[in-house]
Hints:
- The structure holds two protein chains of two kinds.
- The radius of gyration of chain A is 31 Å and the shape is elongated.
- Chain A has 20 helices and 14 strands.
- The longest helix of chain A is centred in the N-terminal third of the chain and has 34 residues, at about 1-35.
- In chain A, α8 (about 165-170) packs across α9.
- Chain A is an alpha/beta fold.
- In chain B, α1 runs antiparallel to α2, α1 (about 5-30) packs antiparallel against α6 and α5 (about 85-100) runs antiparallel to α6 (about 105-125).
- Chain B has helices spanning about 5-30, 35-55, 70-80, 80-85, 85-100, 105-125, 160-165.
- Chain A: Its main location: membrane.
Amino acid sequence: MGNWIINHGLTYFILVVWMAINTFLFVWFYFLYDLGDRFIYTRHILGSALSWARAPAAVLNFNCMLILLPVCRNLLSLIRGSFMCCGRTIRKQLDKNISFHKLVAYMIALMTAVHIIAHLVNAERYYNSRHGDYDELSTALSNLGDTANTTYLNPIRSLSTTPILLVFTSIAGLTGVVITLALILMITSSMEVIRRSYFEVFWFTHHLFIVFFAGLVFHGAGRIVRGQTATDPPHDPKHCDDEVDEWGMEENCPIPQFAGGFPQTWMWVIGPMVLYVCERLLRFVRYLQSIVIRPSKVLELQLMKNGFKMDVGQYVFLNCPSISQLEWHPFTMTSAPEEDFFSVHIRSAGDWTQKLIISKEKQMSVDGPFGTASEDVFDYEVAMLVGAGIGVTPFASVLKSIWYKSKESNPKLSTRKIYFYWLCRETHAFEWFADLLQVLEREMEERGMGDFLTYKLFLTGWDQSQATHVMVHADKDTDVITGLKQKTNYGRPNWDKEFEQVRAENPTSVVGTFLCGPAALASVLAKKCVKYTDVDPRKTKFYFNQENF
Amino acid sequence: MGKIEWAMWANEQALASGLILLTGGIVGVAGQFRDWQFAAYAVAAGVFVCLLEYPRGKRNKGTSVERTGQYCFTVCVKSFGPLTRNYYVRAFIHAGICVPGGFMLATILGCVCLGIASLIYLAAAIRGEHWEPILPRKDSARKPVADSINRPPQNPPPRPPAEMRRKRAEDLEGAAYVNPIPVTANE
């Protein structure tokens, strides 16, 4: 239990606060409309469906405000940078921005459903009331507004207006249908199947959010939800509701007047909308800035840009207008901040990368850099770095930077020991990274720092012929596959043994575990971190951090 | 833009539309709205669309992810042959089903969503896509074992050292191994 609190506590606390605000808004506005005197007459026609429509509307205002914020990645990077003083745990929450975006989206979808169903009932009841299907008071209220000097309560003004006509001739109805359609299209194209396999469908359809927000801001402009306004002398519904015939003729019961509420949604969403526009402008400005490409190996791009500053493990978005004007793809940088250029290693993983690798003309634009968890590596006394396959790229940057920092004896480096685990299916992916490890291995030995970095390589996709080859060369000093002193292991790591070893060798340290790899491995490592963390603050504690794109 | 299979998105959209049509229909019937007959129709139509769209088709490229428990639905949908395989047919079926939903407010959202799904299916059909069922793979992955498994080794360890194991000229028959190729001395 204690382990769980250390690793997940702040996340769940934030979620509890968010749900508490949602619940409070729902309940507050429900009772505002269910008990407020201004709406006694409105409730007489609509019943509790009025409150059931207005309560989710308030929750929707709150969540539509929140949803734009987690996707302002430049803003988040800025906040992340400013929080360097305030502890890892707070900064870790910023890494879960997309999960929060999805959670808020689910809430919006749920509240939209409740809101629509309640308004369907309202439209039907207004229609019935207009046609005299309900009691005398209801009919009288619906008839209000037909003559001069009176204001109406029932938005259905004529007997021939059906609920469908009401929707399509009122601002609220029309905008409501349009934004709901936009929302549904955004949701169906955001399903994991579509997102992982046909990203462009997701990305371009998701821009319907512009339609969504435009419609949302105008949704209340028609002021269709009406409450009673003050008259002189005042009209008290509790006294006058049974004297319908006397309205206007008796002194204490003038004809009641109604008005719609002032539209409020724009007040909630204008701030985040402005922030998001700034975010997109910033991305566009970056798109226009020129970068220089240094000639180098085919799969590695070395780039230089004026005023570009990066930190370890950060990523950039690259755009190549000659391949596609609109596509931006994320790549982790493999160079260290101490180098005067920045590099990315690009693997052929789809049509864009393939075209990039073979094209001679490489005019490019860069957006970024954006921060991720690897920046925190140097804060931990002991770090366990796990990279699966191409997921090793952020750690290339980390290891290079550690090398530069240790050469300069940089005081910002708190790390005393690094355990590096590289899991890979095939050998041909090793080469560029193996070169780096060879260099590091040699230099560390020269400086007598052999203990600083312990690395283990795991070949998870071995077959019989490879195993035979290795058996034959088992006596050689260096590994046959990588040429490194450290031998390659075969099969997947036994994480229990690895964590035991780290704990045994570092009995009082705070260990940061960093993963860049598949979700299945993430859940395994997260569980092991919780399992091997000691509640006793003097003993070893494991913190889990995950890279995700 | 990559090899997009529109049918995958059309399927998600159609399934969502089926649920929306169903929900709108239930609200219309339960609330006893004016044109509740259209709502009753929408309930039936929504269920039908959901049953038709629940089994995901097999993708042309890449791994297909099944929805939970979709196998029995796959079998049902497969049994209709070309009616469910062809996306033109599906596009027209959905276009037809959605029309009565447009006559009542509670079901109009489902109608429009299903209409959009129908258009995406039309795009998929024009690109030549069709529905393939996802069926469980037959278990033929194991390599057949060689016959030598029935003839275990004749001379298992522990074995005496190599000098003693070597074939002796006086006792060729008593040796533990047989030369596959006849050995002759170098002349």
